[in-house]
Amino acid sequence: MSARLGTYCLVVFALLLPGAALAQENAAKKSMSRSKDSYSDIKARANTRDIERLLKEADKLKSKDPGAALENIREALAMSIVNEDIFNEGRSYLLLGEVNEGIQEWKLALDNYTRAYQKFSQGDANDERKEKQILSFTPAVGSLEELRHAITGLANANFRLGQYDEALNYYRELLTKNLSPEETAECQLAISEIYYAQGNYTEALKSVGAIEYSPKKMDASLSIRIQNQKARIYAQQNQFDKTQELYSNSLQNQRALGAPAASSGFVNASTQEAKEDIASVLKDQGKLDEEINLRRQAIEYNLETNNLSEVTRDKVAISNTFAEKGEIPEALKEAKEAASIADTIDNPQAQANAYLALADLYAKNNRANQALSTYKKYSQAVARNEKQHEIRLTDRSELIKQQQDIEELSKTVSIGQREEKIQNQTVFRQQLIIYGLILIILTVAVAAYFIYRSAQASKTANQLLALKSLRSQMNPHFIFNALNSVNHFVAQQDERTANKFLSEFSQLMRLVLENSQEDFIPLYKEQEILSLYLKLEHYRFRDKFDYEIHIDDTVSTETIEVPPMLIQPYIENAVWHGLRYKETKGKLQLDILNQNGFLVVSIKDDGIGRKKSAELKTANQKKHNSTGLKNIQERLHIINKVYKTHYRVEISDLNDSGGTHVRIYIPITKTLAA
Questions:
Q1: In the listed set 112, 143, 178, which residue is the last one of a domain according to the structure?
Q2: Per the structure, how many domains does the chain have?
Q3: At residue 453, does pLDDT exceed 90?
C-alpha cells in the first residue's frame, strides 16, 4: 500500500510540474498543522541558551522522571535541528540513549547512540560546511568528551544485545580516545566482562589483570567491581581459594566503603552477579556446603545493608540445597525464614519464590494442609507480581510512544527546514526543487512502509500477549479443580491418599508452571503432564473410569512441539462432565496419531454424552464450561493467525446413548534439534 502511494505521488507530480512549487508549499503547511508544534513556532523560540537549559534539566530527570526528561529532549532536539546545532543535536540523541538504557530498551538505545556517534564524529570532517558547524557549537575538548560517551553507550548496548564482537570493537576504539587512568580501567573491566560472557576466561582474566591503575588511588567502588570480576573468573577456572579470598575482600571493602556508596547500583549488581556465578559453579561441582557458606556470607552482608530481597533469594537457594542434600528440617527452616522476610518487603516476586519453595517442602513431607495454605499464598503473590509487571509494561509503552513522537517531530522540523530553503529558491532553480520534492515523497513512502511494518509487529505482539493471558486464565482453573480433589480426600479423612495425591499434584504443578510461559513445548513434556493429570483424576474417580494412553510409533515426542495445556481441558471435560456421572464404570481412550501432516489427538469417552451432561449441569457450571471452551477457541484462533497454521477441533457423539469423541488436529511443528 505504501509503495503504491509513493508511485501515485510521482505520477501526479510529473503531470503537474508547473505547479509543483506551490503544491509543495501547501503540503508543508498541512504537515505542520498535524504536528503539535509547527516549524515556524519552534524556530521563533529556538536559541542555544534554552537548548542548554532543556538538556541540563533532562539530564537531571532521566532517572527519576523519564517522561518529563523526554519532553525536554523533544523540545531541545527540535530547536537544535532548526538551528543546525549538530553538537546539541548529538547531545539530545545521547540523552535519548540514556533514557532507553534506564527502561532496558537496548535496541532503541543502540539506534540513538549511533545517531549521537554520527553527529559527534562529524568533527573529523574537513569540508567547509562541516568545519563551520563544528566551530559554531563547541570547542574540541567538549566534543571529544561527548564522543567518548556515545562510544561507551554503543559498546554497552551491543553487549546487552549479545553482539559481543561489535561491543569489543567499540571498547577498543574508546581506548584510543585519550582516557584518564580510571576511565581506562573501566574500559578494560568492561572488555573483561565481554570475554567472560563469551566463555573466554583466559582473555577475561588477562584483560582485568592488565588494569594498572593503583587500587590506593582508584575509586573504591571500581576496585570492588574488579575484585568481583576476578572472583567470577577464578570460580570458572576452579581456583576456589582465590575466589573465596577475593569475594571476602570485596564484601569487607564494601563494609569499609559504607552506605549508600556500597549499595549503589553498579557495586551491588556486580557483587550479586559474582555471588550467583560462584554459587552456580560450586553447585555444579557438588560443593554444596561451600555454596551454602558462600550464601550465608552474602546474607550477613545484605542484612547489614538492608538488602532484604537478596537475603530472601539466598535463603530460598540455601533451602533448595539443603533439600538436595536430604536435610529437610534445615531446608524447612531456611524456607520459612525466606517467606517471613519476604512478607516484610514489597516484592511479590521474592514472596512467590519463597512460598513455592516452602510449599514444595510441605508437600514432599506429607503436610497437606500447610502445603495447601502456602500454595494459595504463592498464587496470590504471583498474581500481584503479574499486575506489577503489567504496570511496568504500560509505563514502558508510554515512554516508547513519547520517543516515537520525538522522531516524528524531528522529521516534521526537518521537512519544515527544507521547505523554508525551497521557498527562498528562485524560479531558475524550480526544476531542482521538484527533484527535491520527489525525493522527499520517496522518503515519506519508505517511512510509511516501515511505520506499517512496525504497526504489524505491534499487532503481533498484542496477539501474543493475549495468547499468554488466555493461558494464564486456564492455569488457575486447572489448579482450582486439583485443589478441590485434595479437599475431597481431606473431607473423607483419607489422609494417606490426600498426601499421596498432593505429592503427585506438586510434581504436576511444577511441570505446569515451568511450561506455562512457553508458546510451544515438546510433545513428551505435554505427554508427561497429561499422564500425571489422568493419574490424579483416577485417584478420585477410580470407581468411575479406567483410561488408556496410546501414542503412535511414528510420532516423535522429542521433536514435535505442541501448545501447552491445549489437550488437558478436553480430557477434563470428558472426566468431569461425562464419565463421573455414569452409573457403570466407563473408559477414556487417549490416542495420539500422525495423519497427513497433522498430529491428531483423539479423546474418546463412553460417558453420558453431551446432551445428558447439559441437562445435569447447573447454570453456573454451564457458564464456566462455556467460558473454558471459548478460551480454547480463542487460543486456537490466535495461534492460527500469528503462526499461520491450521489448528482445529472436531467434537462428535459416539452414539445416541452417550459417549463423546474429540479430535484435535495439530500441524506438526518440529524443534530446531530435529
A1: 178
A2: 2
A3: no
Which residue is it, cell 533439600?
323
The C-alpha cell of 422 is what? 525551497
If one compares 353 and 489, the residue with the highest pLDDT of the two is: 353
Other C-beta atoms lying within 10 Å of the C-beta of residue 487: 12
Q: Is residue 601 part of a domain?
A: yes
584 with 605: CB under 8 angstroms? no
Q: Per DSSP, what are the bridge partners of residue 650?
A: 663
Domain around 66: 36-178
Rg (CA), the chain: 32
Q: Which of 178, 210, 239 is the last residue of a domain?
A: 178
Strand duo 586-595 + 545-551: pairing: parallel
> Of residues 477 and 268, which shows the higher confidence score?
268
Concatenating the DSSP letter of every residue in 526-554 gives HHHHHHHHHHHHHHHSTTTEEEEEEE-TT
**Residue whose C-alpha cell reads 509487571 in the numeric block:** 389
What CATH code is carried by the domain that includes residue 551? 3.30.565.10
Q: Which three cell numbers stand for residue 234?
A: 577464578
pLDDT for the residue numbered 418: 67
Amino acid at 462: N
Q: Give the pLDDT confidence score for residue 288 in this predicted structure.
A: 92
- CA distance to 115, 190, 432, 434, 464, per residue, from 428 (Å): 35, 57, 9, 12, 56
Kindly report the backbone phi and psi dihedral angles of residue 55, in degrees, each rounded to the nearest multiple of 5, phi listed first: -70, -35
C-alpha 330: how far from chain center: 35
DSSP 19: G
What CA–CA distances, in Å, run from 94 to 48, 87, 89, 177, 401? 17, 10, 9, 18, 18
Q: Is residue 106 part of a domain?
A: yes
Q: What is the side-by-side order of every strand in the sheet holding 521-522?
A: 521-522, 560-562, 669-670
The answer to whether the bond into 667 is cis (omega within 30° of 0) is no
Other Cβ atoms within 10 Å of 674 Cβ, number: 11
Residues 6+ apart with CB under 8 A from 433: 20, 21, 24, 422, 425
CATH number of 134's domain: 1.25.40.10
- 656 in a domain, yes or no? yes
Strand arrangement of the beta sheet that strand 598-605 belongs to? 545-551, 586-595, 598-605, 658-667, 648-655
Residue 235 in any domain: the answer is no
Which letter, b or e, does each residue of 294-317 get, where b requires 16 or more Cβ atoms within 10 Å of its Cβ?
A: bbebbbebbeebebbbbbbbbbbb
What is this structure's pTM?
0.54
**pLDDT at residue 619, rounded to an integer:** 52
**What DSSP assignment string belongs to 311-354?**
HHHHHHHHHHHHHHHT-HHHHHHHHHHHHHHHTTSS-HHHHHHH
Cell of 595: 495423519
The answer to whether 59 and 94 are in contact (CB under 8 A) is no
Contact call for residues 651 and 583 (beta carbons, < 8 A):
no
